[in-house]
Amino acid sequence: MKSAAEITKEFYEAFQKKDATKMGALYSDSVIFNDPVFNNLNATEARGMWQMLISRGKDLELKFGEIQSEGDTGKVTWEAYYTFSKTGKKVHNVIQAELVCKDGKIIKHTDRFGFYRWSRQALGLPGLLFGFLPFLKNKIRTEARKGLDLYLKRQK
């Protein structure tokens, strides 16, 4: 059985190669994914989210650091460089990931990043002025969720 560190490394190596199929195969069918934009995604939604982000992120580049492992949990800091499609602005996002593994699969994936920092880069002036306010975060979440739902519907 692979360790949490091995699974985490495999996941981010697949991400670097933009291999959403491999990433999704590392998820358990009962995985729960959370980050500041997407909340409580199930396996189908999380797999679809990675497919959507990779397919839209034409200039997406990813780096990840040393993987830490504590029992069934792999932790890593990863960095994404891409152009935010809605505004055309360049983003450098630094994310702390925690992947809980069981029976060789990821059962819980939590990404943490500074939403205000991200919104300033991705949205420009509106992010600078309003990125710290809950209404903007909720608006981004709602739009992202609608985008994911539409993407998943079109994949059927």
UniProtKB/TrEMBL annotation:
<dbReference type="Pfam" id="PF12680">
    <property type="entry name" value="SnoaL_2"/>
</dbReference>
<protein>
    <submittedName>
        <fullName>SnoaL-like domain protein</fullName>
    </submittedName>
</protein>
<dbReference type="InterPro" id="IPR037401">
    <property type="entry name" value="SnoaL-like"/>
</dbReference>
<dbReference type="InterPro" id="IPR032710">
    <property type="entry name" value="NTF2-like_dom_sf"/>
</dbReference>
<feature type="domain" description="SnoaL-like">
    <location>
        <begin position="9"/>
        <end position="109"/>
    </location>
</feature>
